[in-house]
């Protein structure tokens, strides 16, 4: 028994004088020959692999480490990052560390809404009866439509409440401001740049103030536009740009009892996602455009390129880029940190937000995270299938790509965006909320 455990190649030679078994001898020689051949092949493969790729091949994470001749298996570049494992940024990787700080800071925004006393107060600014009535009416329409088709309604009353709240906020509550008009003579103003906030402005959460001058030669008065960060201050101010709109509306969604996420992207735009209990998913919600469940409006509609799209809430942080960017032609490079480091940072933020939660709550959220991950994977698969469907036989034969037929979602998004652009031109001339205002008089000022 002992003998069989020793590898044949290392088998001790029989003591001198012992008669040699020719069959056994032949067997041993064959085994030794095979081993040498295998070692040589492995060496050749690994030197080939090293020559092909500049980066050293690394074993797949979780793969058993066999005591093979070489530590480096052949490099399969497409599999190099699979599975992706969260990795802390290296102390010398300043770029990743900067992005980490930025994400941690941004993640605080939706936590500022979590103030039960102030949320109750905020609700006083909302004509709740009017909103509930509008929601009831809309949900009855969905119900009737669904009954006539023999299907389940698309949205329920709770979803309609958020939509009615958004329409009220958009149409009659919050004002969009590019250049504030002169408060003395109401003439248009010209941007002069930024100035530090006064103590009272700072006390009300203004980190920065934009300064404008009246264009009327007889007046030339100065106008200050503090950029407030506190959603409860914004409830009194009722004006601003995309950042202020989304911040204040997100807080009101919380006041009305909805679960809400603040969605950030570095290409200077923000929006929200609201949880639909009925559909069991996060729904895109853009209050500055009064649009609901149109996640492709930025790429297919506005032709906007985006890199990272991160959802922050009081319950954590999640990379939701795949929901919004489904075509590579709208993807900006993601170069603020390695993908494995981004996973680590988002896990850090989730752990911080969930630290005080009960075990059950954490478990429920983890389940939700997993379901969302599956949904986002489905977005990618759908995008790939749609890409394949859009390939025509002619383009394949000629090796050229014709303009792909856009899918129904994309068409709808484009139509919706065009409608919105039209309506916006009507009531806010010279104004764009896409992060790149037209006729911008002060290029230094961030549109958010
Ligand atoms: Zn004036």
UniProtKB/TrEMBL annotation:
Pfam family, one: Rad4
Gene Ontology BP, a term: glycoprotein catabolic process
Classification of source organism: Eukaryota, Fungi, Dikarya, Ascomycota, Pezizomycotina
GO molecular function: metal ion binding; peptide-N4-(N-acetyl-beta-glucosaminyl)asparagine amidase activity
Stretches with biased composition (Low complexity): 437-448
Record domain Transglutaminase-like: where: 234-289
Keywords carried by this UniProt record: Metal-binding, Zinc
Keyword RNA-binding on entry: no
Compositionally biased intervals (Polar residues): 29-56, 65-78
Region Disordered, annotated ranges: 1-78, 401-448
Organism: Westerdykella ornata
Record's protein name: Protein png1
Cellular component annotations (GO), alphabetically ordered: cytosol; nucleus
Family note: Belongs to the transglutaminase-like superfamily. PNGase family.
Domain of life: Eukaryota
């Amino acid at each position: 028994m002992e003998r069989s455990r020793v590898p044949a190649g290392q088998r001790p030679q029989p003591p001198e004088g012992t008669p040699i078994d020719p069959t056994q001898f032949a067997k041993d020689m064959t085994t030794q020959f095979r081993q040498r051949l295998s070692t040589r092949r492995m060496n050749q493969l690994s030197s080939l692999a090293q020559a092909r790729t500049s980066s050293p091949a690394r074993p797949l994470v979780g793969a058993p480490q066999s005591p093979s001749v070489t530590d480096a298996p052949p490099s399969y570049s497409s599999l190099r990052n699979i599975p992706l494992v969260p990795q802390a940024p290296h102390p010398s990787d300043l770029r990743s560390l900067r992005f980490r700080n930025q994400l941690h800071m941004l993640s605080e925004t939706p936590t500022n809404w979590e103030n039960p006393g102030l949320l109750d107060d905020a609700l006083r600014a909302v004509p709740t009866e009017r909103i509930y009535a509008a929601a009831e009416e809309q949900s009855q329409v969905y119900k009737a439509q669904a009954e006539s088709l023999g299907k389940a309604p698309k949205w329920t009353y709770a979803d309609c409440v958020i939509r009615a709240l958004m329409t009220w906020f958009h149409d009659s509550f919050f004002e969009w401001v590019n250049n504030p008009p002169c408060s003395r003579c109401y003439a248009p103003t010209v941007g002069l740049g930024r100035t530090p906030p006064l103590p009272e402005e700072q006390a009300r959460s203004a980190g920065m103030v934009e300064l404008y001058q009246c264009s009327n030669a007889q007046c030339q008065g100065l106008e200050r536009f503090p950029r407030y960060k506190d959603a409860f201050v914004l409830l009194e101010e009722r004006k601003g740009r995309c950042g202020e709109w989304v911040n204040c509306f997100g807080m009101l969604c919380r006041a009305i009892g909805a679960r809400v996420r603040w969605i950030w992207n570095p290409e200077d735009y923000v929006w929200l996602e609201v949880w639909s209990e009925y559909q069991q998913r996060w729904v895109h919600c853009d209050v500055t455009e009064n649009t609901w469940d149109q996640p492709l409006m930025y790429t297919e509609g506005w032709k906007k390129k985006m890199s990272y799209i991160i959802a922050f809430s009081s319950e954590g942080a999640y990379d939701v880029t795949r929901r919004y960017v489904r075509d590579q032609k709208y993807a900006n490079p993601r170069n603020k940190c390695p993908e494995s480091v981004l996973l680590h940072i988002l896990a850090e933020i989730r752990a911080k937000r969930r630290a005080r939660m009960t075990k059950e709550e954490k478990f429920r959220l983890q389940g939700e995270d997993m379901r969302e991950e599956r949904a986002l994977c489905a977005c990618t698969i759908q995008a790939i299938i749609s890409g394949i469907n859009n390939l025509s036989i002619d383009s394949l034969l000629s090796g050229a790509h014709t303009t792909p037929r856009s899918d129904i979602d994309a068409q709808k998004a484009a139509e919706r965006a065009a409608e919105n652009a039209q309506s916006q031109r009507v009531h806010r001339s010279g104004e764009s909320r896409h992060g790149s205002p037209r006729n911008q008089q002060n290029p230094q000022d961030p549109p958010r």
